[in-house]
Amino acid sequence: MKQKHEIRCNYCGSPAILKPASEIFHDPKQKGYVYVCSHYPSCDAYVSVHPGTKTPMGSLANAALRKKRILAHQAFDQIWKRQIMSRKQAYYWLSDKLGTDPVHTHIAQFGDYRCDQVIRESRKVLINNRQNVSAA
């Protein structure tokens, strides 16, 4: 029998609870769910779930880390969106740069340090391929 894994907040250690995204984002048009620290909003850590599932997209993150993850994705995604590499190749390249297993190379799991690495290494690729880095 598969055991249910409890999701806990990375910041305060409290259990996370599943809430409708519309409730957290104060937007009735928002679909899906979000895992939120049970001390929300005093602890503002949360993570969205994959559409149609209860599987978190990554680890809970506070506002600063959520912003850093967005910046990391913006920089990294330009590598495959500008066709420097395929998306799959870009993720293999990233896992090699970070020394991580490709299966576990997900920006939604990264902390500040790893996000900084993603941004720095992605910008190097863009510069080396004569791409405008301002958009990244």
Concise synopsis of the structure shown:
The chain is mainly alpha-helical. The protein has helices at residues 21-25, 63-81, 87-98, 112-128, and strands spanning 16-20, 33-37, 46-48.
The coarse silhouette is elongated
Order of helices and strands: EHEEHHH
Give the total of beta strands: 3
- Which runs of at least 5 residues are low in confidence (pLDDT < 50)? none
Rg, please? 17 Å
Give the strand line-up of the largest sheet: 1-2-3
What separation lies between the terminal Cα atoms? Answer: 45 Å
Largest sheet: 3 strands, antiparallel
Beta fraction: 5-15%
Mean pLDDT: 91
Helix content estimate = 25-40%
Class derived from helix and strand content? mainly alpha
Count of structural domains: 2
What is the number of helical segments per DSSP (H or I, 4+ residues)? Answer: 4
Pfam families: DUF3268
InterPro entries: DUF3268
Describe this structure in words.
By secondary structure, this protein is mainly alpha-helical. It folds into 2 domains: 1-60, no CATH class; 63-128. The protein is 39% helix and 10% strand. It has 4 helices and 3 strands, in the order βαββααα. The chain has helices at residues 21-25, 63-81, 87-98, 112-128; strands at residues 16-20, 33-37, 46-48. Strands 1-2-3 form a 3-stranded antiparallel β-sheet. Strand 2 and strand 3 (46-48) form a beta hairpin. The longest helix is centred in the middle third of the chain and has 19 residues, at 63-81. The radius of gyration is 17 Å and the shape is elongated. The N and C termini lie far apart (45 Å). The mean pLDDT is 91.
